[in-house]
Write a structure and sequence with these properties.
By secondary structure, this protein is of the alpha+beta class. It has helices at about 30-40, 40-70, 75-80, 100-110, 115-145, 150-160, 160-165, 175-190, 195-210, 215-230, 235-265, 270-275, 280-285, 295-305, 305-320, 330-345, 360-365, 380-405, 410-420, 450-460, 465-470, 480-485, 485-495; strands spanning about 425-430, 440, 475-480, 500, 505-510, 510-515, 520, 525-530, 540-545, 555, 560-565, 570-575. The radius of gyration is 29 Å and the shape is elongated.
Length: about 600
């Protein structure tokens, strides 16, 4: 038995004029089409049925995961950033990112009310974007010469990457930027690129950049692919023209973006500076020194999906070996894949798992080419190869099903209860902005570098950042692993000021027992009253700052107070804001329950 690579590929009729096929093999059926034909038509029909079943099951799981899976900390921040579009961006506020993604998620606030409902709707928006990306990816596969069954295989492989299935629906800019990137590539590969299609691809590529500056990777990959393919054909003028037209389309949407905000009063040069040289560019240049060992994430993805990566790499190498005899559109897609994969897995200095979705659909494009190696093998070998492929795709379901246990139930319950405890004007703090659309006490985002700054400053007696939070009178704290890391400097501000309720929540107030006086350092000015341990309002009497005993609500200003139950007193009472719904009682575990367990590494 001899294994060989067939350098020829059948293309759809609309791509026939771009295929360099020697006359000696003209009219033959090659590659995976020949693989299916020689294996048997009934095997081909069975393969289509199996692939469709896998695809339907994967999409069903994708929908279930989008609704059920744990939220990443960043998702709460991203949905809150959608409100920036209401605040005159680049005039009254200075967004860190380009804002096209914010307009997508802004609709969630129009159609839903409440944190749980809003972020779930935003997840469904990201899910819809992911499904649209798969539909366009199918067209890209067809555009570079894959048959319908091969294009189905591409989708199944993409969805079998755990790194894609678990992050494609996140409330982040990457899913929308990916949709534009796939669409831009499709415009170029659906037929031989013309001046108009190149400009259109530039426009769509520019839209990806307006979703997130990180999409510059897509922009560069598209330009390198288009120009590089023309140079390979020794057509320097066409390479220059193609690059210029692509850049012209990109510049058109960028200029329009700047003009829109300039009309609203922004300084155009300031907008350009912020977009091109602002925090994302600075972060890319400096890296993320406060995070170490980020290399573990791409390594984990490679190990978890090793058979899929290997199959796709071999398929890509098949194209490399037969590069001369491929269509121009297939060469463009092949170069694009190489560049974007290098950027995401090697060059990018913050390889968080959600970034991998920017490369994996393009990696999956080459999985069908793996079968070309076996097209001359005996029929039993072809059948064995097909069964092995089905087995590889099927084994990926184990992690998908396991991931369903990685639920957002606790996050939603915590956010919903916290929201009920806050009045319309009240502020809260958690460092990750979990209560969507509500006032966070300062815009402080407790990323690693901020935590290090707070701890370092606190060691020298400087509590400026914490005091800025307290100055905003937070009524409620939501505890998570990020607040836990600064628990020691926080304790002086929380221990005599907030009561733990429901495990992860601390509400302004003080616990009282017998008739022992307690210091209450109040940060939230408002009306307080007593509650018993079950969370019901209590009519027990208490004294404030040594004054007359009272049993009803009392208004307390910020500052130090002395609170004491009068005799006879219940064993335990809590002084908390009046009018609360404490149906869950006040009992809480000794430590908060993790709200973001293994967020990036589950």
């Amino acid at each position: 038995m001899t294994l060989s690579i067939n350098p020829m590929r059948p293309l759809m009729s609309r791509n026939a004029e771009h295929t360099a096929t020697p006359a000696s093999v003209s009219g033959t059926v090659a590659g995976t089409s020949r693989f299916v034909e020689q294996t048997g038509s009934h095997i081909g029909q069975a393969a289509i049925a199996v692939l469709l079943a896998i695809l339907v099951a994967k999409i069903s799981l994708l929908i279930a995961q989008a609704i059920n899976s744990q939220y990443l900390m960043d998702e709460y921040a991203m949905i809150n950033q959608a409100l920036v579009v209401d605040e005159r961006p680049y005039v009254d506020v200075w967004p860190n990112r380009t804002l096209l993604f914010a307009y997508l998620y802004r609709t969630a606030f129009w159609l839903e009310a409440g944190t749980v409902e809003i972020i779930r709707f935003a997840r469904l928006e990201s899910l819809a974007v992911a499904l649209a990306s798969l539909a366009v990816l199918y067209q890209v596969a067809r555009g570079i010469g894959r048959t319908p069954i091969e294009a189905l295989l591409v989708l199944c492989v993409a969805l079998s990457f755990s790194s894609y299935m678990e992050w494609a629906y996140m409330v982040r800019p990457e899913p929308l930027a990916l949709l534009f990137a796939i669409a831009a590539l499709w415009v170029l590969v659906r037929r031989s690129p013309t001046g108009a299609t190149i400009v259109l691809a530039g426009v769509i590529s520019g839209l990806a950049f307006l979703v997130t500056q990180k999409a510059i990777y897509f922009n560069v990959a598209l330009g390198v692919a288009l120009v590089g393919e023309a140079l390979w054909r020794r057509a320097p003028w066409q390479a220059f023209r193609s690059g210029a037209l692509l850049l012209a389309g990109w510049m058109a949407v960028f200029i329009l973006y700047v003009a829109v905000f300039a009309i609203d009063g922004a300084d155009p040069l300031a907008v350009i500076d912020r977009v091109l040289f602002g925090p994302p560019a600075q972060g890319a240049a400096r890296g993320h020194a406060s995070y170490i060992n980020l290399w573990v994430f791409p390594l984990r993805s490679l190990l978890r999906n090793a058979p899929l990566y290997l199959v796709c790499l071999i398929g890509w190498l098949v194209v490399v070996v037969s590069f001369r005899n491929r269509s121009s559109t297939e060469r463009i897609a092949m170069i694009f894949t190489a560049v974007i994969t290098t950027f995401i897995f090697v060059v990018h200095r913050a390889p968080w798992p959600y970034n991998f979705i920017m490369a994996l659909p393009f990696v999956a494009l080459w999985a069908p080419l793996f079968l070309e190696i076996f097209h001359r093998c005996p029929r039993p070998i072809k059948i064995l190869t097909s069964l092995t492929a089905v087995l590889v795709l099927s084994t990926s379901f184990a992690r998908n099903i396991d991931y369903l246990d990685h639920s957002n139930t606790l996050q939603n319950a915590t956010a919903a209860r916290a929201e009920r405890l806050l009045g319309p004007e009240d502020r809260y703090f958690d460092g990750v902005h979990m209560i969507v659309g509500r006032d966070h006490a300062t815009k402080l985002w407790l990323q690693r570098s901020r935590l290090v700054d707070i701890l370092t400053s606190a060691s020298t007696g400087d509590f400026t950042r914490i005091e800025k939070v307290m100055a905003q009178s937070p009524k409620l704290w939501i505890l998570n692993y990020r607040t836990a890391e600064i628990r020691q400097p926080l304790s002086a501000y929380l221990d005599d000021s907030y009561v733990p309720i429901g495990g992860n929540l601390k509400l302004t107030g003080i616990g009282l027992s017998d008739n022992v006086p307690r210091r209450f350092l109040n940060w939230w000015s408002g009306e307080y009253r007593l509650y018993d341990a079950s969370g019901r309002p209590s009519n027990a009497q208490f004294m404030v700052d040594g004054g007359a005993a009272v049993s009803g609500p009392v208004t307390l200003e910020t500052g130090n107070h002395e609170i004491q139950l009068t005799w006879p007193a219940p064993k335990t009472s809590y002084l908390l804001p009046s009018g609360l719904d404490l149906e869950a009682g006040l009992d809480s575990p000794a430590a908060p329950v993790p709200l973001f367990p293994a967020a990036h590494s589950f």
